[in-house]
Design goal:
It is a single chain. The protein is mostly beta strands. The protein has one domain: Hcp1-like (Pnp Oxidase, Chain A). Helix content is 4%, strand content 40%. It contains 1 helix and 9 strands. The strands form 2 sheets. Strands 1, 2, 5, 6, 7, 8 and 9 form a 7-stranded antiparallel β-sheet that branches. The chain has a two-stranded antiparallel sheet with strand order 3-4. The longest helix has 7 residues.
């Protein structure tokens, strides 16, 4: 993948509707993903006092990463279902597939108007904690049938090597 430099002359913010999601080491994006929940983390605050000082100090505690929800129109692609089934416990009393299929790295790319990646994030050791295979079905509606997965994760990081190309 080519390395881009940041266009420092850009003033308009990027749009949130052009993005790609990749599971594991795949170079093919997951089909039909229409919505991704935000990447959010928070850290606990530890308050403490020092002897001889009336001021309450604040220190950094443990960091937590919120689950990420992916949503897409229902298709014949089985990426969501296959991953969700890796965590499903059936008669055997253990996950139905090998543990190596339970956790995956996820890559999320935000694209500019020209379809080039301008931001990329890696989500580490993600696994499916919730899977909705079918939405409420309603014969009187004209909505798209959606499926979604909720991904628990052990952190995410920004890939600084991806950026918008400068104009030539």
């Amino acid at each position: 993948m080519p390395t881009f430099t940041v266009n420092v002359n850009r003033f308009d913010p990027y749009k949130s509707y052009r993005f790609l999601v990749f599971f594991g080491q795949s170079t093919t994006p997951v089909a039909a993903v229409s919505k991704i929940g935000g990447l959010k983390r928070s850290s606990d605050v530890i308050e403490y006092k020092e002897g001889g000082n009336a001021l309450i100090r604040k220190g950094l505690g443990r960091t937590k990463y919120d689950p990420i929800t992916l949503e897409r129109g229902l298709t014949h692609d089985k990426d969501f279902a296959n991953w969700a089934n890796a965590a499903q416990v059936l008669d055997s009393g253990s996950p139905s597939s090998s543990p190596k299929n339970l956790r995956r790295e996820v890559r999320i790319q935000l694209l500019n108007e020209a379809g080039q990646p301008v931001y990329q994030y890696f989500v580490h050791r993600a696994w499916v904690s919730e899977y909705q295979a079918l939405p409420d079905l309603d014969a009187g509606s004209n909505a798209i049938a959606l499926e979604h997965i909720k991904l628990e994760n052990e952190g995410w990081e920004w890939d600084a090597s991806v950026g918008e190309p400068t104009e030539v």
